[in-house]
Automatic annotation (TrEMBL):
Residues 1-22 form the signal peptide. It holds the Pfam family NMT1_2. Keywords: Signal. This is ABC transporter substrate-binding protein. It comes from Jiella pacifica.
Length: 350
């Protein structure tokens, strides 16, 4: 009988411990885009970093940044992995958010297909698009993300600041992430200012596809996707924010070091999990050096982007970049080898 009572007590204790663990977990509503610049989130989800930190992710998928802005303004989402452009718009319109980590920089490439790829084999200059229009009898149709997004902003910056051309030289078609990729792959447009893995996918499927400009050529130092959190999460659960930033930096190192399972983790979420793993690996390899978690490194580029968007009229309200970007959580991370690098995460579950 004593033995039975001991077993019953043990079982009761296990249930009680499980209940306590469940109560200790903090549910965090996380908005994200199924794109490679959000790769750190996917690695953190799969390597157990959130679970170990007591975070229960409630994922909400979006297809474009502006929709996430609306969600934030409506009081939804505790955290958001999206572009710095929409983050500035959300902040300017009253959303109480802070950018606590960077995801990636110089993430946009310009890919040409069809007639434009053949026309611009010698590179792109100020007159390239106007000359193309004169020869074809129409403007080049270029697809990119919605107005005010990072890809849209980078495309316009490249045309006007880098090439000295005019936005009016092309026809810009604004679409969601999936639609931009589909338009490029089907030849419905002449080119696109896009993210990985759409670049690698286009190059793998179309022998004539050509990268006319890389991210560093289009907008040097350009900030891309970021991790933003709501002010209430910082106030109520600063330990959760600290854990998310630590996971961000660990995942960044995993991506840069090609850690086992990282590609599989990213491939599970990007493109609906339907992309060939080899394409995901190629996309990650092209982006490896662009993964940057330190928010200090995007302050200057964010100021430049803010000023350009204000001049373009896509950002009507002023944004205090130094208030928007909170580097304190990242700055407090324990250093490693005197360089502030995080400890390497465990291999991602495969």
């Amino acid at each position: 009988m004593n033995r039975i009572l001991q077993i019953a007590a043990l079982i009761a204790g296990l249930f009680a411990a499980s209940a306590v663990c469940a109560q200790d977990k903090v549910t965090v509503e996380i908005g994200y885009l199924p794109i490679l610049p959000d790769a750190q989130l996917f690695v953190a989800l799969e390597n157990g970093a959130f679970e170990k930190a007591g975070i229960k992710p409630d994922l909400v998928e979006f297809q474009e940044g502006p929709a996430m802005v609306q969600a934030l303004l409506a009081g939804q989402l505790d955290a958001a992995y999206f572009g710095i452009g929409p983050a500035m718009v959300a902040s300017a319109r009253g959303a109480d958010i802070k950018v606590v980590a960077s995801n990636i920089v110089e993430q946009i490439s310009f890919v040409a297909v069809g007639d434009l790829a053949g026309f611009a084999t010698g590179g792109v200059e100020k007159q390239t698009f106007s000359d193309f229009a004169a020869k074809q009898g129409r403007k080049a149709r270029i697809s990119t993300f919605p107005t005010g997004s990072v890809p849209d902003t980078v495309l316009k910056y490249w045309l006007t600041k880098q090439l000295g051309a005019s936005v009016d030289d092309i026809e810009i078609i604004h679409q969601g992430a999936a639609q931009v990729q589909q338009a490029l792959l089907t030849g419905a447009v002449d080119g696109a200012a896009i993210l990985e893995p759409a670049v690698s996918l286009a190059l793998s499927r179309d022998a004539d596809a050509n990268v006319l400009a890389s991210g560093s050529q289009m907008f040097p130092g350009q900030p891309g996707a970021v991790l933003a959190v709501r002010g209430s999460l910082i106030k109520e659960h600063p330990e959760v924010v600290e854990a998310m930033v630590a996971a961000q930096r660990d995942a960044t190192e995993a991506l840069r070091d090609k850690a086992p399972g990282a590609a599989e983790a990213v491939g599970k979420y990007v493109g609906g999990g339907r992309l060939p793993l080899e394409v995901v690996r190629q996309a990650l390899d092209r982006s490896r050096q662009s993964f940057v978690a330190d928010p200090n490194k995007i302050v200057e580029g964010t100021v430049a982007m803010r000023d350009f968007q204000k001049a373009e009229g896509t950002l009507r309200e002023d944004v205090d970049v130094e208030k928007l970007i909170d580097t304190s959580f990242y700055d407090r991370l324990s250093p490693k080898d005197g360089q502030g690098a995080p400890a390497k995460p465990e291999a991602v579950a495969q």
